[in-house]
Write a structure and sequence with these properties.
The protein is built from seven helices and two strands, in the order H-H-H-H-H-E-E-H-H. The chain is mainly alpha-helical. A two-stranded antiparallel sheet has the order 1-2.
Length: 179
């Protein structure tokens, strides 16, 4: 079973190419989904940008900190794959967190050449605070919804996330070929 995003992407089989013009209903649904997701992503990006300054870290640093904490420890290469960044950009993001005392670098005990990023107690505390604040915000929003709708929404958003993950190139990206 693949353990990292890069492993998962490398293990993927080719996804089918769908011609949206073959089914007008599919095309209309795809256009509405695109519009809805664009609006949602735009709002979340602005919210994240505005909130990140409250914690004195960037949005990318927030994702990096959470990724390291969730994994327990990550190499720069693993962090880059998880964040869909190139290695040098991921290194700059990590350096900022190390400079703030939220991450530390540790040599791997089995192979001293390998350096892993680990969260410091301060980093773990900050991540817990950010997650708590987000959970409170989402709880306020979801409190207006029926429990069945909340559960269905969570399942659908998770499924969308898996679908997008399956289609993202994590090794630095590639240019789109419009055909």
């Amino acid at each position: 079973m693949p353990t990292t995003i890069a492993d998962r992407n490398a293990a993927q089989v080719s996804l089918p190419i769908v011609d949206p013009t073959a089914d007008p209903t599919l095309r209309a649904d795809a256009e509405r989904l695109s519009d809805a997701l664009s609006e949602l992503i735009r709002v979340i990006q602005f919210r994240d940008r505005d909130r990140a300054c409250c914690y004195d870290i960037s949005v990318s640093q927030c994702y990096a900190l959470k990724g390291v904490i969730d994994a327990g420890a990550l190499t720069i290469n693993d962090l880059a794959a998880q964040l869909y960044l190139d290695k040098s950009t991921a290194s700059r993001v990590a350096n900022g967190l190390v400079d703030k005392g939220l991450l530390a670098r540790e040599r791997d005990t089995a192979d001293g050449r390998v350096v892993r990023l680990v969260a410091t107690p301060e980093g773990a505390s900050m991540c817990a605070t950010i997650e708590s604040d987000l959970t409170r915000e989402y709880a306020e929003m979801l409190s207006e919804w029926d429990p069945e709708v909340r559960a269905a929404t969570t399942r659908l958003v998770a499924r969308l996330g898996r679908s997008f993950t399956a289609r993202v190139e994590a090794s630095g990206g590639s240019c789109c070929v419009v055909g």
